[in-house]
Amino acid sequence: MMSLTKNATLLHQIGQDLAWAIKSPSLVKTAQNFISDSYCGSQYAAIEKSINDSTCLAQHSMLFDRFFSHTRPRVGDYFERLVLLWLQLNPDYHDIQQHIRIYDNKRSIGELDFLFNDRVSDRSYHWEVAIKYYLLYQPADGEAQLVGPNANDSFHKKHLKLVDKQLPLSATALAQAHFDSRVFIAPICAKALLKGYLFYPSGLTDKSAERGSLFDHVSGKHQKGWWTSVKDLAIPKQTNSSYWLLMKKPYWLSVNQAATEQLLNYEEIQQFVLTHFAQHNYPLLLAEVMHNMGEWQELSRGFVVNANWPNKDNFAKETY
Predict the structure, then answer these.
(1) 32-68 residue pLDDT tens
(2) I want to staple 297 with a disulfide (CB 3.0 to 4.6 A). Which of 80, 92, 292, 309 is the partner?
(3) Beta strands per DSSP E along 119-222
C-alpha cells in the first residue's frame, strides 16, 4: 500500500484537486436543493490555508492510501474522498458519516453519500455529491442530448435521479429510523453538489443550443470543453506552442503535474489517438497545456470518442 505522508507531489495534486472540487462552478443552476457557487466560495475561503498546507493534508492521507492502491481508481470515488476531506477540514462540521445505506427490511433502497452536523447553523445535513462529464450530441434525426462519455448516462437522467430519488431519501421514515436522533436532528437539510464539464462538438460556434429546454437546469457558468470523433479528429489548438497530455483516471479534475513528462506535440497527439482507436473503443480525455509560472497550465480539454459513439454496443462499459 502506498503512503502519501512523504509524497509531496501527490499531496500537492490532492490539494490542487480539492481546490478545484470546491471552487469550480456547479453544473446546475442555483436552486434550493443544490449547493451554490457562493456557498462553495465561502467554504474555500474558510479552509484555503489547510488546503495549501501539505502537513495538514498528510494528516488526512489515510483517506487516499487505500484508494490509490486500486488498479482502476474511479473519478467519482476520488471526488467523494475529496469532499470528505473538505468536510473534515472545516472545523464547523462534525459527526460526519459517509455511505449510509438505507434498508427496507433486508432490501437496500438507497444510500446517503454524506450526513453531518454544522455548528454554525445548528442543523443536520445530507449531501449527495457527484462529478460528471457530458457531451452535447445532436443526432441527425433526433433531439440534442447531453450524454456521458460511455453513453450510459445523461445530464437529464442524473438531474432527475438527484431531485426525485436521492435527495428525498433522508426525509423518509425508513431513513430516519437509521439515524441516531440524539446526533442528527430532523428535519435534515438535503443538498446536492454536482460539478464537472460539458463538452461541445469541436469547432462549434453557435451556442443557440444552450437556450433550448435541454439546458433548463444547466448553470450558465458551467465548465466547458470540446469533443471530436476519431473519424473527424478535429482537435482544436489554442497556441502553436501548445502540448497535449492524456488525462488518466482519477486525475480528471486538474492537470496532473507529475504526468507532464508524457507531453506530446500536435502531430504526436494525433498519432497517439489514431493508434489508440485502432486497438480500443473507449474515449480519451486530453488536456491542451502550456508552461506558465513554473507549472503546466491547462488551456483546453476535450474528449475523442470512437467512430460509432454514442452507440453503446461499440465499446466496453467504462466506469467513471
Answers:
(1) 899 999 999 999 999 999 999 989 999 998 888 888 8
(2) 292
(3) 123-137, 145-147, 189-201
Distance of alpha carbon 300 from alpha carbon 302, whole angstroms: 7
Cell 490509490 sits at which residue?
A: 68
Give CA–CA dist 319/66, Å, rounded: 19
**Is residue 111 domain-resident?**
yes
In the chain, the number of structural domains is 1
Q: Mean pLDDT of all residues in the chain?
A: 90
Instruction: Answer yes or no: is 30 within a domain.
Output: yes
Is residue 221, in this structure, part of any structural domain at all?
yes
Q: What is the CA radius of gyration of the chain?
A: 21
Rounded Cα distance, 136 and 148, in Å: 9
pLDDT digits (tens, 9 = 90+) for 166-212: 999 999 999 988 888 789 988 999 999 999 999 999 988 666 666 67
- Tell me which residue range forms the domain holding 35: 8-225
d(CA 200, CA 87): 33
CA distances from 59 to 54, 162, 281, 303 (A): 9, 32, 40, 35
**CA-to-CA dists, residue 290 to 200, 233, 252, 253, 263, angstroms:** 22, 21, 17, 17, 10
Q: Report yes or no: 129 and 82 within 8 Å, Cβ to Cβ.
A: no
Residues 6+ apart with CB under 8 A from 197: 27, 133, 134, 222, 223, 224, 225, 301
Residue owning grid cell 466547458: 224
Strands 295-305 and 107-118, by their bridges, are unpaired
